[in-house]
Task: inverse folding
């Protein structure tokens, strides 16, 4: 792993030991400014635990965790249960850990298309709305380091792509480091710089393309997912044609896939939608 | 004016209600009602200790409350019992031990009912100074930590990750809670303190859209309960502590009634 001055957070051989077993062990990774790192792995593989290590929510029982001093962090947890007895408007929730001007709140809400919910109670939001408000709160803090634990749960496919392209934008605007946890391998692949595949330890890591083609990844997620992934990427490029793009049958580079994610009006691409839904179900079965 | 016992009771009660309201909201949001109950039950242990060692009762109660919350935090980390069992265990063992200790002290005549259910009409001018001085200090402290405390109440992990130091804030909150129990014990007694904390807050919930609004509103409802309860106690010659709690319960019932009505009218 390359050392550099922009490094925000790094884990060195870090591990967490709970209830007589290692939840994660020997995790070495880092996130630098302007970089999107994605954690993938099966259920219980320690993705959230690793994120909590990086955030300082959990202290490492082994190894070292370095965080840049005065690091401004935003965290979107996987689950947030709000007590019914808590009266909390979206606007107040956005100011949970920081103060903000109304105009800043407006901008943050607009960016996740939730401005119309500003005065709504948090308890009345749908799953997808809730998730987008969580993201708006994270953006409002203008973080150096943004941690998103499955940020697209309950968001429909169109919204999902929009959120990922939003995360792209945030990274570009703020030059922040992003640690993303996702179960949705297909879409993550296109926006991320580096993928870390976890299963209690780091199975494999690297660019999305290297990870997808690695033997460890295939054995962890099954040949079907890995090939589904390749299939999807192929389809993705194929979609590019109506927009005037060129067909890249072997394309695996980030720039191209990013392009097609950001620029595609997805609504008109029903075949692609159907494909993705199918492969999604596959990943659920694993 | 402060010569009149009734006026003193009113002023003392209002002082306690003002701090109990916002604190009660936090207790409700954090689902700490039973924790508050445990602390207040163990307050009687403080009373027994104070009488045994000739200490100031309020200080002893405060000390015991802090000790019990520390013990609880320790037990929650170590023991394999669930929190509610631990709380029940601590609450009732503290209550029982203090009753045993008090009964051994045959040389002291203890007004047990007064400690259990409060003796607001016996408030002295000195008590008033402690209630308003101590209560005011606690209220200011609570306002100072309000934002990070609220953030930690909504989600500990976000609060930790985003650097609002919730562990430190939680400790201050625990001190605040112990102080409020020590201050308000004389008003409603150890068995009814939790009621004064949570019933006004629960009544305020329905009319609130923001946490700050709920905190202010529950303080107001607490003040109304104190006034109504004391009036009732004077009018019908009933014990003041329970009378205040009954008044608070009536406020709560009134607060949920319009909900039913509006539901019916909308159908």
Result:
């Amino acid at each position: 792993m390359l050392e550099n001055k922009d490094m925000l957070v790094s884990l060195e051989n870090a591990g967490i030991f709970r209830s007589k077993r290692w939840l994660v062990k020997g995790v070495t990774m880092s996130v630098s400014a302007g970089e999107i790192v994605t954690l993938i792995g099966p259920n219980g593989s320690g993705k959230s635990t690793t994120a909590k290590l990086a955030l300082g929510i959990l202290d490492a029982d082994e190894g070292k965790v370095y965080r840049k001093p005065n690091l401004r962090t935003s965290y979107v947890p996987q689950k947030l249960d709000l007590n019914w007895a808590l009266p909390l408007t979206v606007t107040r929730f956005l100011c949970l850990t920081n103060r903000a001007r109304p105009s800043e709140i407006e901008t943050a809400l607009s960016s996740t298309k939730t401005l119309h919910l500003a005065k709504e109670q948090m308890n009345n939001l749908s799953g997808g709305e809730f998730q987008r408000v969580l993201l708006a709160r994270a953006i409002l803090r203008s973080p150096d380091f943004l941690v998103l634990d499955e940020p697209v749960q309950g968001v429909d496919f169109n919204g999902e792509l929009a959120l990922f392209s939003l995360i792209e934008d945030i990274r570009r605007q703020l030059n922040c480091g992003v640690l993303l946890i996702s179960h949705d391998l297909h879409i993550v692949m296109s926006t991320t710089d580096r993928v870390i595949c976890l299963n209690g330890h780091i199975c494999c890591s690297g660019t999305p393309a290297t990870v997808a083609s690695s033997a460890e990844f295939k054995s962890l997620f099954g040949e079907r997912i890995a090939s589904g992934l390749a299939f999807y990427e192929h389809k993705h490029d194929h979609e590019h044609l109506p927009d005037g793009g060129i067909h890249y049958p072997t394309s695996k580079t980030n720039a191209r896939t990013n392009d097609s994610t950001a620029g595609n009006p997805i609504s008109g691409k029903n075949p692609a939608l159907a494909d993705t839904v199918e492969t999604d179900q596959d990943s659920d079965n694993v | 004016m402060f010569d009149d016992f009734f006026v003193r009771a009113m002023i003392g009660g209002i002082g306690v209600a003002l701090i109990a309201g916002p604190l009660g909201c936090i207790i409700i949001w954090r689902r700490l009602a039973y924790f508050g109950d445990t602390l207040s039950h163990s307050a009687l242990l403080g009373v027994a200790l104070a009488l045994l060692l000739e200490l100031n009762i309020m200080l002893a109660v405060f000390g015991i409350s802090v000790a019990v919350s520390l013990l609880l935090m320790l037990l929650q980390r170590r023991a394999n019992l669930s929190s509610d069992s631990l709380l029940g265990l601590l609450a009732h063992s503290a209550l029982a031990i203090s009753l045993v200790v008090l009964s051994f002290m045959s040389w002291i005549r203890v007004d047990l009912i007064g400690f259990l259910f409060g003796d607001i009409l016996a408030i002295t001018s000195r008590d008033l100074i402690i209630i308003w001085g101590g209560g005011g200090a606690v209220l200011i402290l609570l306002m100072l930590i309000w934002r990070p405390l609220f953030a930690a109440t909504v989600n500990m992990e976000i609060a930790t990750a985003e650097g609002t130091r919730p562990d430190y804030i939680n400790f201050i909150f625990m001190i605040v809670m112990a102080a409020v129990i020590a201050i308000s014990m004389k008003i409603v007694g150890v068995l009814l303190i939790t009621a004064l904390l949570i019933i006004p807050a629960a009544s305020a919930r329905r009319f609130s859209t923001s946490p700050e609004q709920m905190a202010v509103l529950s303080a107001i409802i607490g003040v109304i309960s104190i006034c109504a309860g004391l009036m009732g106690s004077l009018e019908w010659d009933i014990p003041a502590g329970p009378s205040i709690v009954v008044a608070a319960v009536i406020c709560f019932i009134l607060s949920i009634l319009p909900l039913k009505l509006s539901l019916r009218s909308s159908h």
